[in-house]
Amino acid sequence: MNKLTAILVDDFSPALEMLQNDLTSKHPEIEIIGTAQSVVEASKLLRQHQPEILFLDIMLGDGTGFDILEIHPNLSSKIIFVTASDEYAIKAFKFAAIDYILKPYSTDDLNKAITKAKFQLSPNREQLTVLHDSITHPNQRPKKISLHSSDKIVVVNLDDIIHCKSDNNYTEFFMNDNQKIVVGKTLKYFADILKEYGFVRVHQSHLINLQFVKEFIKSDGGYIVLQNNQTIPVSVRKRNEVIEALQKL
Predict the structure, then answer these.
(1) Spatial separation of the C-alpha atoms in residues 8 and 153, rounded to whole Å
(2) 52-67 pLDDT tens trace
(3) Tens digits of per-residue pLDDT, 183-218?
(4) Euclidean distance between CA atoms 148 and 199, whole angstroms
(5) Cβ(145)–Cβ(156) under 8 Å?
(6) How far apart are CA 66 and CA 205, in angstroms?
(7) Which of 69, 92, 147, 148 has fewest C-beta within 10 Å?
(8) Which residue has the higher pLDDT, 208 or 135?
């Protein structure tokens, strides 16, 4: 069996020991070549070894996991982020389209993360920037979001998204530059994370960016006219919510 090398970084000793024990006992295909509990320790270790998988906690005593990645910008390791139960952190990972393990994790969580790491590319710089900005400024409106299409990851400005349309378990993003991006997640997933930032689900199949609304036509059941003159239906049960959201603009 070809083993995958790994380095574990966590500043909480019990959590570090638990992860080490879980990997040793349940994942013999992974060889732990080092552990660290700080930015300084991890940086020294990564100068000597570049593992195939890096288990990286976000918040460390002397800094953050991002500091380690900035010190080692050419790191080619697959990264499995580990984070505590924090709603802002979870939302940040969703915006960046980066997988993570939420502490305390289950055996199934760990298995899935390792499986994904084996077959997926490491997060790119733009994704890490989205993650970093979302975590370090949790109360600010995010500027960008990462969209995972079938063949690539595209980082786009929130203000360039005109509207999103459901296509079964996929979501179609219609952009201000006429680009269409298809993402393998449901519309509900994006409606939940974008609802605080000027997006309203006006219909079971449609999520719109309010800043692109041209007018709301109340007749014929009710529909939205976007600035590009596209019409979007408004469901009866969403009508009052849409009117209220538009009155706040």
Answers:
(1) 26
(2) 999 999 889 899 888 9
(3) 999 999 999 999 999 999 999 999 999 999 999 998
(4) 19
(5) yes
(6) 37
(7) 148
(8) 208
Tokens of 48: 């000597």
The beta-carbon contacts of 19-23 under 8 Å, at least 24 apart in sequence, are: 19/55, 19/82, 22/107, 22/110, 23/110
Q: Three-class SS of residue 188?
A: helix
Cα dihedral across residues 240, 243, 247, 249: positive or negative: positive
Q: How much is the pLDDT for 188?
A: 96
Cα distance between residue 125 and residue 136, in whole Å: 16
Strands (E), 15-77: 30-36, 53-57, 59-60, 63-64
**Cα–Cα distance, 219 to 215 (Å, whole number):** 12
**140 pLDDT higher than 90:** no
> How far does the chain reach from its first CA to its final CA, in angstroms?
60
Q: Using an 8 Å Cβ cutoff, are 29 and 40 in contact?
A: no
Q: Each residue of 72-128: pLDDT tens digit?
A: 988 888 899 988 867 778 888 888 888 888 888 899 999 998 988 887 767 788 888
Task: For residue 80, count CB atoms less than 10 angstroms from its CB and return exposed for 0-12, middle for 13-18, buried for 19 or more.
Answer: buried
Cα 44 to Cα 24: distance, rounded to the nearest angstrom: 23
Q: What are the structural domains of the chain?
A: 4-136 (3.40.50.2300), 159-247 (2.40.50.1020)
CB-CB contact of 201 with 191 (8 Å)? yes
**Average pLDDT of span 170-188:** 96
How far apart CA 211 and CA 204 sit, in angstroms, is: 20
